[in-house]
Amino acid sequence: MSRKPTIAITGIGDSGPYQRVDDRSLFELVVESSRRAIADAGLKPSDVDGILGGSGGPTDELAAAIGITNRRFSASPNASAGGASVGGAQLAQLAIDAGLARHVLNPYGIKLSGANNAYSFHARDPHKADLEMPVGFYGQPVYFALWAQAYKAKYGLKEETLGEIAVACRKWAQLTPGSQATVDLSMDDYLASPMISTPLKVRDCCLNTDGSASYVMSSLDDARNMRNKPIVVAGIALSAMPVTLGEVFTQNEDLLETAARKSAALAYAQAGISSKDLDFAEIYDCFTASFLIQMEDLGICGHGEGADFLKGGTMAPGGSFPMNTHGGHLSNGYVPGANHVVEAVRQLRGERGAAQVTNAEIGLVAGLAGNEHATMILTVDR
Predict the structure, then answer these.
(1) Is residue 13 part of a domain?
(2) Which of 126, 151, 207, 328 is most buried, by CB atoms within 10 Å?
(3) Lowest mean pLDDT among 59-63, 235-239, 304-308
């Protein structure tokens, strides 16, 4: 059932050009993107009275460093990765609707250089350490290669289909200042890239990034009197599979079903739209295979129809359905889901220059968190 929108994104910010290694600490990166988001909204840190604890450190320490002096609401999303960075808007909406806060900051950062790298996250899971790692089933490329193999077994999967995603993301990144990977990538380059875990190649894998992206949410009534035109949160939903994060890659009944099917249905219903109404989409692309499976679960095309849909540069600049218009996690930077939100806002504001989607009015942001998924529908103020 559709609902009347009550909040909007009023400010966005990032930590600067995304890099594989940034000398700043994770805390410093998050503080930087947060301050930029607050300033972009035309606010002072003292105007922000709510903060979400997605990453970067305890909310009290972040609030103090940012300069938030009137913190009335704090919460941490019970999700990780894209579930927190995208789904956190749900908590902000509840807080603002209840009168607990007027302006809520959702900061998100990641620092994969050094000891706290991508592989250390799952290594802390005792089930993986005891049962999976000893037999070699370990590491994100291996996990998502299993999804790709399952897709191939059911529908067939050519290398070129995943290549369409990687090549398109690189083209968008070349149009996006601050992107981490901008060297030309042709289909031949993609096909020649080294295999990591069959069928996933190097260019099927997201970047390792040090960076942060943040956004401010305000009531829609307040937003209409603020610096930027409001970007309305028309739908926001979080859903989960009936398995844990540790189990989702091996124990999920259907390896090709993500929680995107449920979160998207809820978000579309709230916004009173369908996938056919979208002008663009920013889909969590930790790997090309996860992008492909989510794209189908989001209803952008039918299940098993991804190859035909993507053929010929559909999602690339100049294509009929633009997706990951900043370069995504594959080429812009891996700031799980957060840089996707920032990009969607920029598109709807009409700020993207050569990468601008013509007449963009409705966009989708999808945040994957393994067994969990968040879908956000953003629109211009109508």
Answers:
(1) yes
(2) 328
(3) 59-63
Q: What is the pLDDT of residues 93-122, one digit of tens each?
A: 999 999 999 999 999 999 999 777 777 777
CATH code assigned at 25: 3.40.47.10
**Tokens at residue 33, please?**
């993107």
**How is residue 205 written in tokens?**
């894998």
Q: What is the pLDDT of residues 264-301, one digit of tens each?
A: 999 999 999 999 999 999 999 999 999 999 999 999 99
> Average model confidence (pLDDT) for the chain?
95
Q: How far apart are the C-alpha atoms of 67 and 72, rounded to whole Å?
A: 14
Nearest CA among 345, 340, 202 for reference residue 283? 340
Count of alpha carbons within 13 angstroms of residue 304, beta-carbon side: 5
- Please provide the DSSP assignment of 168-208 as one string: HHHHHHTTSTT-S--S---HHHHHHSPEEETTEEGGGBPPP
271 domain residue, yes or no: yes
Q: Which two tokens stand for residue 191?
A: 């096909």
Reduced 3-state DSSP string for 289-328: HHHHHHHHHCCCCCCCCHHHHHCCCCCCCCCCCCECCCCH
The predicted pLDDT at position 57 comes to 66
- Number of other CB atoms surrounding residue 115 within 10 Å: 5
Show the domain range for 77: 7-114+206-380
Question: Residue 104's closest CA among 29, 32, 58, 54?
Answer: 54
The pTM of the full predicted model, rounded to 2 decimals, is 0.96
Question: Considering the domain boundaries, does residue 300 fall inside one?
Answer: yes
* DSSP string computed for 125-158: -HHIIIIIGGGT--SHHHHHHHHHHHHHHHH---
From the DSSP assignment, how many helices (H) and strands (E) are in the chain? Answer: 15, 11
Give which of 124, 149, 152, 85 is closest to 368, Cα–Cα: 85
- 228 inside domain: yes
Beta carbons within 10 angstroms of residue 27's beta carbon: 18
Number of compact structural domains in the chain: 1
Helix (H, G, I), strand (E, B) or coil at 28: helix
